[in-house]
Design brief:
Layout: E1 4-5, H1 7-22, H2 25-31, E2 39-41, E3 48-50, H3 51-65, E4 70-81, E5 84-94, E6 99-111, E7 114-123, H4 128-132, H5 140-149, E8 161-170, H6 173-180, H7 182-202, E9 206-210, E10 214-219, H8 222-235, E11 243-254, E12 259-260, H9 262-272, E13 279-282, H10 283-289, E14 295-297, E15 301-304, E16 311-319
Parallel strand pairs: 2-7, 11-13
Antiparallel strand pairs: 1-4, 2-3, 4-5, 5-6, 6-7, 8-10, 8-11, 9-10, 11-12, 13-16, 14-16, 15-16
Helix pairs in contact: 1-2, 5-9, 6-7, 7-8
Length: about 325
């Protein structure tokens, strides 16, 4: 079963940030685990604190050194699964002289019926070009832009006429990559891309683009596209990460240097409307698919899709 959203963990992480802001050491001590395995990673390279005693002692010293500040919380995504939970947080730390965007990752554990922080990591976001020397694709919007602008070495016939496009996206990939570290993240992406290639080939489709946390696939058959989407979800390790998938059918025009058509844009927007671990298809695709063994259509939803006029009907896919 996929992990569930957790208002309790969100509340705990917000209280941690408030304790950071106010310097309330009593509150901080109550929010972190008393287990020696507690780890807190700060911004500086040597800010790697092991155990509650070391962390609370250093933190109390830093309170006297840090100028007055305000932590503005921009976003919290919090989840729980059994006795463990986690959160990805975006903030802006504001002082009289600076205004700095930051990211935080927290892992929590139930201890005597209360959620306690067992790992907390602070980071200051930098551009991918500063680390890798090049800019990387980071969102579904970037994926669409890249596909539209970049030459794709496929024959014109392969992507001409009516096609069904499948977009996949690993949810909160940036926070997940930070939490896992470079090596584990690279291994996860390698396994995920291998799954996508195998599933796409088995259903007679074409891998148009793989961008680590996102992909675009093309199928001549809408039924094959939906089967592929379900197989990708079945094969994905939802205990480690969540994938959202969108499917849409329409006219695609392949030129020498571009992949053209509103179908590309709409398929990406349908994927963006899906939740982690789910599949959404357009009403056009639904009408073409009909019935499939082991696969059911859920209740249609009327939504607005970014960059597209009017509202659109999308349909969740359910599978056994």
């Amino acid at each position: 079963m996929p992990a569930t959203r957790s208002p309790e963990i969100e509340s705990v992480t917000r209280r941690v940030l408030l304790a950071f802001e106010s310097g309330d050491m009593a509150a901080m001590a109550n929010l972190v685990s008393s287990d020696p395995s507690l780890r807190v990673l700060g911004f500086a390279l040597d800010e790697w604190w092991a155990g509650p005693e070391e962390f609370l002692t250093i933190r109390e010293t830093q309170i006297a050194e840090i100028p007055a500040l305000h932590i503005q919380i921009e976003r919290v995504d919090a989840f729980e699964d059994g006795a463990f939970g986690w959160a990805a947080i975006a903030t802006t730390v504001i002082t009289s002289e600076t205004k700095t965007p930051m990211k935080h990752t927290a892992v929590l554990r139930l201890e005597a019926g209360a959620w306690k922080v067992i790992l907390w990591n602070n980071s200051v976001p930098v551009t991918n070009s500063q680390i890798f020397g090049v800019e990387l694709t980071t969102t579904l919007d970037d994926l669409v832009t890249s596909i539209l602008k970049e030459h794709i070495p496929l024959s014109s016939a392969a992507l001409e006429g009516t096609m069904t496009l499948v977009f996949t996206d690993i949810v909160d990939s940036t926070g997940l990559a930070e939490a896992l570290g470079d090596t584990a993240w690279a291994e996860l992406i390698s396994r995920h891309e291998s799954t996508i290639r195998q599933v796409t080939a088995s259903q007679g489709g074409t891998v148009v683009k793989l961008l680590g946390d996102g992909s675009m696939l093309a199928f001549e058959s809408a039924r094959a596209a939906v089967r592929a989407a379900v197989d990708i979800q079945r094969a994905s390790d939802h205990g480690s990460f969540g994938v959202r998938i969108g499917v849409h059918t329409g006219e695609v025009i392949r030129t020498a240097d571009d992949l053209l058509g509103l179908t590309v844009n709409k398929a990406a927007r349908v994927a963006a409307a899906a939740d982690s671990g789910s599949i959404m298809i357009s009403s056009t695709t639904r009408d073409l698919v009909g019935s499939l063994e082991g696969i059911r259509m859920g209740e249609p939803k009327i939504v607005a899709l970014k960059g597209l006029s009017d509202t659109h009907q999308i349909v969740p896919i359910e599978w056994e």
